Amino acid sequence: MISLDKIYLNFGGFDLFREISFLINPKDRIGLVGKNGAGKTTLLKLITGIEKPSSGTVTLPRDTTLGYLPQQMHITDTRTLIEETTLAFDKIISLEKEITKTNQEIAESEDYHSPEYLRNLDKLTELNERYSILGGENYEAELEQTLLGLGFERSDFDRPTSEFSGGWRMRVELAKLLLKKPDVFLLDEPTNHLDIESIQWLEDFLKNYKGAVVLVSHDRAFLDAVCNRTIEITLGKINDQKMNYSSFVNWKNEQKEIQLAAYRNQQKLIDDTEKFIERFRYKATKAVQVQSRIKQLEKLDRIEIEEEDKSKINIKFPPAPHSGRDIVKAKHISKKYDNHLVLDNVDLYIEKGEKVAFVGRNGEGKTTLARIIMNELGYQGDFTLGHNVKIGYFAQNQAQLLNNELTVFETIDEIAVGDVRTKIRDILGAFLFPGEDIDKKVKVLSGGEKSRLAMIRLMLEPVNFLILDEPTNHLDMKSKEILKNALADFSGTVLVVSHDRDFLDGLVNCVYEFRNKKIKQHLGGIYDFLQKKKIESLKELEVKNNSSSRSTVQINSSADEISFEDKKEINKTISRYEKQVENTENKITELEEEIAKLDAILSQPENLDDHSVFEKYNDLKSELEITMQNWEQQQKKLESWQAKKIW
After folding, report:
1. Is 608 exposed, middle or buried (0-12, 13-18, 19+ CB in 10 A)?
2. Residue range 24-30: average pLDDT?
3. N or C: which end of the chain has fewer CB within 10 A?
4. What Pfam families does the database record attribute to this sequence (predicted)?
């Protein structure tokens, strides 16, 4: 059991925590939530001892082991994948060496009755028992299972870690952490560098883990799957509830109405009391009452509420400068890193105004193709960027490129020009940097705050083609919504590399799936893509086997015969029929509800002679029958067009 008792922390000139207390029990699954900058990462660091509170105590039982995964890590690249991961078993490896040494000493001994020989026998027995308790017989199989679960292939095991991208190297650190099996996991945004399949594996691992888990994440589905307790940090205090995140959100919305009413009542009481004090302060006959009211105000436990961010609806990217119709034309693109082939003869076409998503497993080439479009990487094949296309790029490490010594205001002021310079405070406030927050130095900001700041810099320069590589990493729920709305309203072209299904929903109209060094186009939104694949989520997409590879080839060959314009026309027709079907289904529901109401009326004896009710009832029944027939015809047409949508 870990205890945090009356933790107070003054950080950067303001109170981050104000006497917060809670316990972490042996099998807790805690989701630690709150807006960016609320102190989630800092709280994890307090538990680990990396940071110290201004007052209060953090108490850990003796021999309690912690497994801490920070958002950013310094990673060494001097070993192969298998060698680096094996470091997690340092105790077992040390025991193996000691057992080997002891066996050798026993074998070399000639006096089987000497005290030294007998001591070695006892020592060997003890070493073997410890080796067995630590799982020495199975650690290699466990290591392999963990690496495969996190998305590595067996062919990766002997590769130097320096060959892997930053995200994959973070997985190496996560694998080492999981294999150490600490008593308490402290995980800060562990899904940021994982693909969907690995997220599913980690969910299952943590749900079945025997120790405790404290998890910081902005992935709602992941929080719901793993956690059964939610601790929210807000206004320097905590809200601790034994429920998953979705249940917590619903509960909080209910409590918010109650709290708001209590806040208004208290504010009225304070206002009335202050008016009374001001009115009678200098009247001797009221001195006792005035002093009583003053003491009443001093003792009052004032209710605090978080103000809603009203300005977010005004956040927009600048109007996109004019460009040609063709944004990107790529034919037969291939890319190798040394002998490692990432993309093999792929084609890509992006048209003006499209909002496109790249989805698929990590390492399949999504970021690589984005960087080829940016002209940051060499390649084989033909690539053309359209006329007057101006690119704005947000990379996964964009936040790390900020100058840590500048303040939030200075970071934007150094690139702002013209009238924008007079609106910097408003822009920062809209992106959740209110008041004195703009004077904070970049180095004290959380990962999410840095990402928002980097996004603001991107928004200040007019571009017509936005390329965003995992833009939602480190962003909280509200910041994701701000960014999504701004992108939806953007008049230019957007390419998003992401595995965040909720973020992509309603934003993109074309999905490129990266798989086995190839890409495959799917017109429509992310849910069109999921439905087409006959799966319920991207997680199922990632674990789907390749048993249908033969039929996929046939489908691709048919799709190649359909032009891009024909594909778009088919997609529009399907969307039109889907809307018709939806409207007709809504009409059927309305008619059935009206008929049900009349059924209730006619069930009363006093209404049996009301002919107008009978006439209306019969008319509704006839209308329902006709509407049902229309629905059947529309459904047949929809299914017919869907059959043509074979890519």
Report:
1. exposed
2. 93
3. N
4. ABC_tran, ABC_tran_Xtn
